[in-house]
Amino acid sequence: MRDARRGSIVAAANLAARAAGVRPRMRLSEATALVDTDIRDYDPDEDIDSLCNLAEQAQQFSPIVGLEQLDKKTWSGRTLLQPEALLLDVTGIETLFGGEVKLLQQVASWLAKWNYFGCLAIGSSVGAAWALANYATRSASSHLSEYSSVAENSAEALVPACRLVSGISEDEVLNSLPISALRLEATTASDLKRLGIQTIGQLSSLPRSGMATRLGKFLLTRWDQLIGKQAEAVVTMHAQPDWSLEQSLEYPTEDRATLNELVRHLIKELATRLSKRNEGALRVVCRMDVVDAAPTLLQLSLFRPSCDAEHLELLIIGQLEQQLQCQQPRTIWRLCLQATLTAPIVWRQTELFDGQAIENRQQIARLVDNLSNRLGRKQVLSAKIHRESQPELACTFYPMTGRRPDGSQQVTYRKLSSRIANQRADPSRQDPLRRPMQLFNPPIPIVMQLAASSALTPFSRFQYQGSWHRITQALGPERLESGWWRGPNARRDYYRVVTERGSWFWMYRNLKDNQWFLHGTFD
Prior knowledge:
The chain is of the alpha+beta class.
């Protein structure tokens, strides 16, 4: 991500990069000097979206799930300015999972199933659980074995095991943690360290009188929240009561026809409530509570707000059929339906000749919903263009459903016009056909044959897909270079060439080794 003073810095690094010495907030130039790796732009919206999806799925372990609440000022030790943790209230329900450690092991296995590495902890308060998860589990101290339980439940060792910490001997462990575990402001933590106070235990040995005057009342508030003297609520992510429906069965069933009919009934009721408020659902979660097994969750994301019962019914029942085909028959005793994300439905007065355009937008929205429901939300993507000279980094892709409240803006594609075939000058920066419609990732190595010095073009032909293509026209070169902050510099000369068959290609010569690559096509 971009820092105003330091330039490009590391927002996050995986375990392999951390093992090589890469750390968050490090300069990107320093990180690329330590390891040769893939670099991607940090997208905070995608992070929050993924965290909210995890929160919805985590309701199978607790009915009260929320994101950590942030303050106006940045906490000490934080790397990102947004929530990074999930909070679950498991008061009194750990016995349903066989105890606290068993509960944590099931959560760890669930995270490993989705290829996430989790630092998990159970504490007597929100502050204690947050401190244990963020600091005790990340430490490799030898005394961890006295109160921790390590889970090695990663599937086939593809995902690192999660270290789990229970609330046993909590006070002793909390006193050994650093001051940053109190979620203090950076200035307050810095003042305490200058006074020689490094751990919570050292702070607890000091008298409380005078702390608020010298270090602020917020320090005492965080301290009281840690030890449970002051309550701290978990702000849940449940939908509004009007958008939450539930149907308990007197006799549990596994009959598909019965389940489909129950889902239809709940969807019609939800659509009626949404229509009365002039709201539309953007994300719907269907939870099926199973006898003697973990609940089954179905998540539906939409391209634009909808309160059409027939459309929602088609999508959810289709997803339900796919889910039941992949699993053994399960006995379901309760169904819950929630619209976890809604947006107002904007009604516009139609003009005389725009009826076809509105109908087309509705059909495109339904097509995107159907494709996302069948193929998966992350398989139907839209491109976001960036001002970047290196073609591979000029755009990023994000899911089209579940995020945007309006689906009126569509990505349009234009065919290569005939005027390009007769064009002799390089296209302007505003020309939409300045770049090819299709990019090859990675670029394809080709063999280029140069033309005689008297020829009209500097190139004669190139070999691609086992055959030679004769070049009749070439525009270029266009020099493109990558930023120095990304590591090894990429220097390329790009050409737009026309073959005798009328096809247009985009190719470049790597100035480091003079190798030729085909990067895209305009067809």
